[in-house]
């Protein structure tokens, strides 16, 4: 029977062949476990190093931006984006303040021009010509202010996108640290530590080094 | 007419308020909330004639607010106008199914707002007359 089967053992490592020939069941189990475990540890270590590299790359990216006097960590990046959000809201409010101030001015100019035209509407009277021009200008101003106010609603639209990016950065950081934590605990053979919230860069670095990454 | 404007961005609340005032609604009768939760609290505290709400907000979104409003028998007829950047098909359908009265995609002008409001009140008057 065995003669008809191809010899599958010839390409196997010596320790596997030795195992297959072993008659001690317990030793066989133990050796097999140890081999699988060794292989798993390689995988987890590789994953951990990968996560560490990725985290390092992100930090370096932050470090490069530091030359501009800005973020050196993902937490800082989030903070700066929130600041952008606040600044753009303030700028939009200032534009809206300006529109609120100018609208009555345009309305008053329009009213005054109409009063002048009640008094004189001759095509040759310079006062009437100027009043007509003032009326047209006041109308253009109101339209322009309406357009400007509408343009400020882009602040809300851009702000929503910034908020999404802030959320994304947060989730990437959390996932990355979770990966490091998991691979670290698996590689070292310990039970995974409880998922503590990592809030600062120092916490993150401490955690990474705890697992030897 | 008492109107509740719900948006997490103060800029947008201000713009919507200004547009409503421009269309002739009374400024002091307009109130603001920055999310669905706070909007519900204001709705419970006093009677409103209309709600103008954003979709994307923290804590309670506009669609959740709309569903909460429709779940309450006394607010069944309260007009809700959705003002949002979300203009994909699924979301518009979800809003329609949840019982929204009007849907405006940002950014929009006073003219668009007036048209949508007129449509809402026409439909309400028609359903009121046939009821």
Key structural traits:
heterodimer; A: mainly alpha; Helix Hairpins; B: 131 residues; Rossmann fold; five-stranded parallel β-sheet; 48% helix
What does this structure look like?
Helix content of chain A is 79%, strand content 0%. Chain A is built from 5 helices and no strands. Chain A has helices spanning 14-21, 25-66, 74-119, 126-188, 201-210. In chain A, helix 2 (25-66) packs antiparallel against helix 4 and helix 3 packs antiparallel against helix 4. Chain A starts with 13 loop residues before the first helix and ends with a helix. Residues 65-71 and 191-196 of chain A have low confidence and may be disordered. A 5-stranded parallel sheet of chain B has the order 2-1-3-4-5, with helices on both faces. In chain B, helix 1 (10-22) links the parallel strand 1 and strand 2. The radius of gyration of chain B is 14 Å and the shape is globular. The interface between A and B is medium-sized, with 17 and 16 residues.
What's the short story on this structure?
The complex is a heterodimer of chains A (213) and B (131). Chain A is an all-alpha fold and 213 residues long.
Secondary structure elements and pairings:
The complex is a heterodimer of chains A (213) and B (131).
Chain A: H1 14-21, H2 25-66, H3 74-119, H4 126-188, H5 201-210
Chain B: E1 3-6, H1 10-22, E2 30-33, H2 36-45, E3 50-53, H3 62-71, E4 80-84, H4 89-97, E5 102-105, H5 110-130
Parallel strand pairs in B: 1-2, 1-3, 3-4, 4-5
Count all strands of chain B and give the number: 5
Let me know the number of strands of chain A.
Answer: 0
Described by strand count, sense and barrel closure, the largest sheet of chain B is: 5 strands, parallel
Largest sheet of chain A: none
Q: How much strand of chain A?
A: under 5%
Globally, the shape of chain B reads globular
**Coarse morphology of chain A:** rod-shaped
Widest sheet, order of strands of chain B:
2-1-3-4-5
Name the average pLDDT of chain B.
Answer: 91
The CATH C-level name of chain A is Mainly Alpha
The name of the CATH superfamily of chain B reads Response regulator
What name does the CATH topology of chain A carry? Helix Hairpins
In whole angstroms, the N-to-C terminal distance of chain B is 22 Å
Report the uncertain regions of chain B: none
Order of helices and strands of chain A: HHHHH
Count of DSSP H/I helices of chain B = 5
């Amino acid at each position: 029977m065995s003669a008809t089967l191809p010899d599958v053992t010839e390409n196997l490592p010596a320790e596997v062949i030795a195992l297959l020939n072993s008659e001690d069941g317990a030793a066989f189990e133990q050796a097999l476990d140890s081999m699988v475990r060794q292989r798993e540890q390689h995988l987890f270590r590789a994953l951990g190093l990968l996560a560490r590299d990725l985290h390092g790359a992100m930090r370096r990216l932050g470090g490069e931006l530091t030359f501009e006097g800005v973020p050196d960590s993902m937490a800082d990046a989030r903070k700066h984006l929130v600041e952008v959000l606040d600044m753009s809201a303030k700028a939009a409010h200032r534009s809206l303040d300006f529109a609120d101030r100018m609208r009555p001015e345009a309305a008053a100019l329009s009213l005054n021009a109409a009063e002048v035209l009640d008094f004189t509407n001759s095509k040759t009277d310079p006062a009437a010509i100027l009043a007509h021009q003032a009326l047209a200008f006041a109308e253009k101003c109101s339209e322009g202010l309406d357009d400007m106010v509408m343009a400020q609603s882009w602040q809300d639209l851009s702000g929503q996108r910034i908020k999404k990016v802030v959320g994304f950065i947060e989730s990437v950081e959390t996932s990355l640290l979770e990966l490091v934590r998991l691979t670290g605990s698996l590689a070292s053979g310990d039970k995974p530590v409880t998922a503590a919230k990592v809030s600062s860069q120092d916490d993150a670095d401490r955690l990474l080094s705890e697992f030897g990454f | 007419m008492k109107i509740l404007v719900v948006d997490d961005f103060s800029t947008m609340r201000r713009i919507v308020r200004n547009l409503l005032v421009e269309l002739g609604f009374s400024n002091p009768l307009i109130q603001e909330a920055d999310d669905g939760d706070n909007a519900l609290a204001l709705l419970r505290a006093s009677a409103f004639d209309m709600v103008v709400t954003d979709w994307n907000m923290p804590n309670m979104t506009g669609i959740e607010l709309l569903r909460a409003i429709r779940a309450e028998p006394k607010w069944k007829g309260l007009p809700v106008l959705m003002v949002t950047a979300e203009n994909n098909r699924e979301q518009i359908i979800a809003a329609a199914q949840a019982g929204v009265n009007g849907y405006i995609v940002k950014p929009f002008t006073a003219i668009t707002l007036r048209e949508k409001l007129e449509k809402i009140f026409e439909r309400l008057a028609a359903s009121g007359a046939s009821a």
